[in-house]
UniProtKB/TrEMBL annotation:
A GO-annotated cellular component: cytosol
Protein name: Family 1 glycosylhydrolase
One Pfam family per UniProt: Glyco_hydro_1
Keyword Hydrolase set for record: yes
Entry keywords, A to Z: Glycosidase, Hydrolase
UniProt-listed GO biological process terms: carbohydrate catabolic process
MF term (GO), any: beta-glucosidase activity
Organism of provenance: Holdemania massiliensis
Keyword hit for Protease: no
Family statement drawn from the similarity comment of this UniProt entry: Belongs to the glycosyl hydrolase 1 family.
Annotated TM spans: none
UniProt superkingdom: Bacteria
Length: 460
């Protein structure tokens, strides 16, 4: 049986694109209480106070404009769209027994519109947002009550939408919890054992993921469940043995969560860290057995940059890489300091496929840049160059034998940056006329890169 043809498409997330944060019965999510640019607080969730601008409240209004936006996707020729559901639209408090019918209908209509345009939906269940009511009541994913609440949510999604959605991703970039725990309401600032809180939260998420896979396979309908990590391959800065070992150790640590997702077991190096730090975790044998019995059907990852490792404290640091690390002098950087490494994408795909031997998805890859509009024209040749180089690397990896189910560039529309809260950090093929203060017409303007991507898909 031959490999599935790779789908080419784009991505969005609910909290960064939808807006309508308090309409049609939606409850607050933790993303709705983060003022623009304020990513410095680990976990403190004040209610919106009218004194700050909260970019997710209106975002780019995809909630109301999805029909015209999907028309643009069809015009571009997208074969798939990776997007997310807003958990707090379905369950505003997170614990209701029945979902909000207005949310159910909204996403029914959205999925039906995609399918009518022959665009395959790839749905993320939880993308950097959870109901704030759950965060306030239980804390975060370090509390096992979250497992129960998430499973009610995921079970409903699979039963209701599983006949139309084949590909599902449970959680966005699960391993980023180790670096930005606030995105999953993990209260490391409210405990004297932050590493223990993060490790417990990850275990609870992994268990919820495995339970969701079991539920999906029981339902059938050809559903495939994956989970997502953020991945940046790590190069030693030179051939010094200490730097090679450091890069190797960092790589193993970065992939420890993927090891559990795919292999169903915590790697020895991760267990060693738990033991050496004397972390007290609630992990039952039944939970560990569930992890072992329910590996993911595919592994999804984001790829924005590579990383470099140096034991030297004086080594120049990379300003933009989410994982930190040393600056690679052989790479150019974006306006936000992210190092650009198309070759690293081919390396990453081969490395992950060699390690896990399951199908992969690249579900985020793109360039954040300041776009200039002149007479409704955006000449974003820099974005075209970025995407062209990365698509070449993607195609080379496919020729290498890597099984790639889908590539969804980030992003189809400009949307709120998750890392900075900005609109001016633009990733889209389509410009959205909204600025960092939320002012603008919300008009959509096709960039030069839109037409370039259209031709790439058409001429595959």
């Amino acid at each position: 049986m031959g490999k599935t043809k790779m789908l080419l498409g784009a991505a969005l997330s609910a909290s960064q694109s939808e807006g309508a944060y308090d309409e049609d019965g939606k409850g607050l999510s933790i993303s709705d209480t983060v003022p623009a640019g304020r990513r410095d607080l680990t976990r403190r969730y004040p209610k919106p106070d009218g004194k700050h601008y909260y970019p997710t409240h209106q975002a780019v209004d995809f909630y109301h404009r999805y029909q015209e936006d999907i028309d643009l996707m069809a015009e571009c020729g997208l074969e798939c769209l990776r997007f997310s559901f807003a958990w707090s639209r379905f369950f505003p408090q997170g614990e209701e027994m029945q979902p909000n019918p207005l949310a159910v209908k909204h996403y029914d209509d959205l999925i039906d519109k995609l399918l009518a345009e022959k665009i395959v939906p790839i749905v993320t269940m939880s993308h950097l947002e959870i109901p704030q009511a759950l965060a306030e009541k239980y804390g975060g994913w370090e509390n096992k009550e979250f497992i129960r609440c998430f499973l009610r949510y995921s079970q409903f999604l699979l039963e209701h939408y599983g006949d139309r959605v084949k590909y599902w991703i449970t959680f966005n970039e699960m391993n980023m919890l180790l670096y930005f725990p606030c995105t999953l309401a993990v209260g490391v600032d409210l405990t004297d054992k932050p590493e223990e809180a993060k490790a417990q939260a990850l275990h609870n998420m992994l268990y919820a993921n495995a339970q969701t896979i079991a539920a999906a396979h029981a339902i059938g309908k050809g559903i495939q469940i994956g989970a997502m990590i953020a991945y940046s391959p790590i190069y030693p800065v030179d051939c010094r043995p200490e730097n090679i070992m450091l890069a190797y150790d960092l790589e193993r640590n970065a992939l420890s969560i993927a090891d559990v997702l795919v292999r169903g077991k915590y790697p020895g190096t991760y267990e060693r860290k738990i033991d050496e730090q004397a972390l007290q975790l609630e992990r039952t044998q039944a939970e560990l057995d569930t992890l072992a019995q329910n590996p993911v059907d595919f592994l999804a990852t984001s790829y924005y940059c590579s990383n470099a490792a140096s034991i030297e404290a004086t080594a120049e640091k990379s300003a933009g890489n989410l994982f930190g690390g040393a600056r690679n002098p052989f790479l150019k950087t974006s306006e936000w300091g992210w190092q650009i490494d198309p070759q690293g994408l081919r390396y990453a795909l081969n490395y992950l496929y060699d390690r896990y031997q399951i199908p992969l998805m690249i579900v985020e890859n793109g360039l954040g840049a300041l776009d200039v509009v002149t007479n409704d024209i955006i000449e974003d040749d820099y974005r075209i160059a970025y995407l062209e180089a990365h698509l070449h690397a993607l195609n080379e990896a496919e020729k290498d034998g890597v099984e790639i189910l889908a590539y969804t560039m980030w992003s189809f529309l400009d949307q709120v940056s998750a890392s900075s809260g900005q609109m001016s950090k633009r990733y889209g093929l389509v410009y959205c006329d909204v600025d960092d203060n939320g002012s603008g017409t919300f008009k959509r303007i096709k960039k030069k890169s839109f037409y370039w991507m259209q031709s790439q898909i058409k001429n595959r």
